[in-house]
Amino acid sequence: MLARANPLAKLGAAVALLLVLFISVDLLTTALVLAILVVSIGFSGIGVRALLGRAWPVLVTAVMVGLLNGLATEVHENAWAVGITLALRLLAIVLAGTLALASTNPTDMADALQQQLHLPARPAVGALAAMRLLPVLAEEWRTLALARRARGVSADGSPVRWVRLAAGQLLSLLVSAVRRATQLALAMDARGFGSGTRRTSARPQRMRGSDWVLLLGGAAAGLAAIVVSLVAGSWRSLFGG
Amino acid sequence: MQRGWRTVDVVVGSVLGVAFGAVFQGWNLAWAALAPAFVTLPPLQGLMYGVWLLPAVIVPLVVRRPGAALLGETVAAAASVYFGTPWGLVIVVYGLAQGAAAELVFAMTLYRAWRLPVAVLAGAAAGGAAALLDLALYYPAWPIEWQLAYLALVMPSAALVAGVGGWLLVRGLGAAGALAPFAAGREQPEV
Amino acid sequence: MSDTGRPASPAPSVEASGWGWRHAGRRAWALRGLDLRIEAGERVLLLGASGAGKSTLLLALAGLLDGGSGRSEGSLTLDGRSPATLRDRIGIVFQDPATQLVMGRAGDDVAFGLENRGVPTERIWPLVDEALERVGFGYARDRPTAALSGGEQQRLALAGAMALRPGLLLLDEPTANLDPEGAALVRESLERILREARPTLLLVEHHVAEVLPLIDRVIVLEAGGGVLVEGPPDHLFARYGDRLAAAGIWVPGYPLPAPVSRPRPAAATVLTTDQLRFRHPGAAHDALRRTDLQVRSAEALAVTGPTGSGKTTLALLLGGLLRPTGGSVVAGEALAAGHAGDPIWRWRARELVLHIGSVFQQPGHQFLTRRVRDELRLGPLQAGLGAAQADRRADELLARLHLEPLAAANPFTLSGGEQRRLSVATALATAPSLVILDEPTFGQDRRTAAELLALLAATRDAGHGLVVVTHDREFAAALADRTLRLAAPAPDEVA
């Protein structure tokens, strides 16, 4: 269902919740926002099992964060609460980030940014075009590693040599990247990209009623969590509070 | 030399970002798997950072336009999460912050300085931004002395790896003749 | 801005008078003193040795060379006007599909050019569908561009260039990066386009014979000069065929000179594979299916097959660079004395380079140093042969491959042909028993290909084993003693 939503509506709702999570370090706010996010998973089209499968490093990190902060905090009486809060907060932040971009196509995102936020076309489309080279460059990175082995060059366990090797490999990749980019820029100019004519768009992006509901609903939910926490007297901000 | 962005500036800047994004995919995987350990050993986290900050230094040095640091670093972050990682947007936010911090440094020179000292400062600034995000995300409950110590550890290694390393890489690009369309390349002898 | 309701733009005539261009940062002129006239609607094949300025001319005609990238002299006009003012009436296609396509979906890519030119939204999609139909694209608009083969991608690029029915169509080696099947797809599309429209056409193409039926006239350019010769194809090749072939042009009817026949040492087994297969981690199908073969010294084995059949994977496995997913590649006694039976993927890089040389498809992937001479010294040094030996080998190879004047140059600044020669030379520097080459004649002109053929034949005759992965049937026929043809992946196996 989220797949059909406007990319900026999804992003905006998630960013609102992220901001709330960022500035709040108390258990109540964090738990409320996390609950909202977990419920949203159902609408996102992401399988829960798939999510958990790839998320285990996040879970482990969250546990470590909980432990580290709980042990280091100066507020000794509630150390366990601090630990759990921060662990949940991290989980919620990552989850919000995942839902923000869930099933968003890069082309649609670039369109929405240009049409709705009036981001200039040149960087948006330029970056989108560059993304097409990602698989090519990733493949080239692997090939460069193999090419080094073929030339008899390997690190043989020495960290210094590993750094030099990696730096050389990176340089080769960058040289190739610049060459391809120069050629791509030429091809884009040949198709009228740099000409200064005002671009039209083939895929109009706009906000529908449901998109506004998503965006404003997300923001409202986040604010509500803070309000509830304030009313309960338990709200604490990141910046010493 | 203050002309607007040409197509080649945007595309080369973006593709450099994407190239780093491709490299980071592996780097990110390593980080994601090792994150639990890093979180316990902050100095290691500091060392990994330098690599992530390279686009914020390299793209401006090559392209030499306002906004280059922001573009390069953000595109690199976006490309590195393209194939899907749970850390997704978080990494893009880091990219935006790191790019913006480096951008500030170049802006303060009125976009006229493109040599090693600026590179090092930009690297340090980007590292500082990343460290601040880390503190907000992972160590918010730490005592202030520890937090400052963290900053003090991350920023110099970032300045070194991203600033000096980035500058050296751009010189390598110039020597390979790859920078002909750019001012950075005109400092090379004729072939 | 174009009015989209209008039929094709009128085809312009092309006129050059004393025209020359010098790229910024170069000392030599790409072209100088060019005088030519091409009539509206004429179809011209542009030929010349590598570096003869063909691409430069096309870029200039497309209005893409501006004062910032170099200096010009003389005049170059379309219908008497500067090309930059007529950009909307010109379509150009380059040789590499990967750096031409801009969007993730086919239809969006064709729409890209229309968006740039301010075509109103409601007119865009009909034009896109028309353009895709015109080249015979065969897929729906939302087909991901990454799922297209090279030939299909070039078709899409052609559709993009044709979307606004340009009067001038420029094609810069459109089939150079494609396998024979892909090249055929592109030629088919071109034929379709030319059947229903009559733009002025300038085509740069190495596979001359296949495009001759489409061409009215041939113009041959010379590096740093202007027109060398020109005229109708049959007449031109009959009269100047020898000179052109010697200059590096792939003249139809002039096959590569057959290598000198020499006595060879007896062949011995260098590598044996047993049920060898490879699958990328997480992939649904094998990249290389079970293969059994033997590679022998003093013998050349050609590996052919369509894209996706696993040729490059096989080359990497035979080079000891990948670990097999199943089966094995083991060394024969002739590869490394005393190591018969070793699986080569286990060898350390220093060992490997001494016995097997791998030459990759893109020479740039293998350049690790900043000077040509250092590249040649690297292999022997890594293999532990000592600095004196390394120097000697380097000097030998510099002389043998005519690279002496470039000894101190940065490898990346060499021309395509020079880079190719250098990459082969670096593989030979350690005198390995086996040399594996992946598409060595890719994009090379006839002269470099002939040199490579002679060099590789001599290497083989001296007792080295050769494995050459190639699409080039002529090259394979001239060099190979045996051919291994890999089968295409089954239809359900394509990603």
In short:
The complex is a heterotrimer of chains A (241), B (191) and C (495). Chain B has 191 residues and is mostly helical.
Descriptive report:
With 241 residues, chain A is mainly alpha-helical. Chain A has helices at residues 7-23, 27-44, 48-72, 79-101, 106-116, 121-131, 134-150, 159-190, 209-231. With 191 residues, chain B is an all-alpha fold. Chain B has helices spanning 7-40, 42-63, 68-80, 88-108, 116-137, 144-175. Chain C is an alpha/beta fold and 495 residues long. In chain C, the strands form four sheets. In chain C, strands 5-6-7-3-8-9 form a six-stranded mixed β-sheet, sandwiched between helices. In chain C, helix 13 links the parallel strand 15 and strand 16. In chain C, helix 2 (106-116) packs across helix 3. The longest helix of chain C has 17 residues, at 180-196. Residues 1-6 of chain C have low confidence and may be disordered. The interface between B and C is small, with 11 and 12 residues.
Number of strand elements of chain C: 17
Alpha-beta classification of chain C: alpha/beta
Number of domains of chain C: 2
The domain count of chain B comes to: 1
- Largest interface summary: A-B, 66 and 60 residues
What Rg of chain B is obtained from the alpha carbons, in whole angstroms? 16 Å
Instruction: Tally the helices of chain B.
Output: 6
**CATH-defined fold name of the largest domain in chain C:** Rossmann fold
CATH class of the largest domain in chain C: Alpha Beta
Number of helices of chain C: 14
**Overall geometry of chain B:** globular
Question: Can you tell me the CATH superfamily of the largest domain in chain C?
Answer: P-loop containing nucleotide triphosphate hydrolases
User: Cα-atom Rg of chain C, whole angstroms?
Assistant: 25 Å
What proportion of the residues of chain C is helical, as a percent range? 25-40%
Characterize the main sheet of chain B: none
Order of helices and strands of chain B: HHHHHH
How many strands, which pairing sense, and closed or not: the largest β-sheet of chain C?
Answer: 6 strands, mixed
Apparent shape of chain C: globular
Read across the widest sheet of chain C, the strand sequence of neighbours is 5-6-7-3-8-9
Strand fraction band of chain C?
15-25%
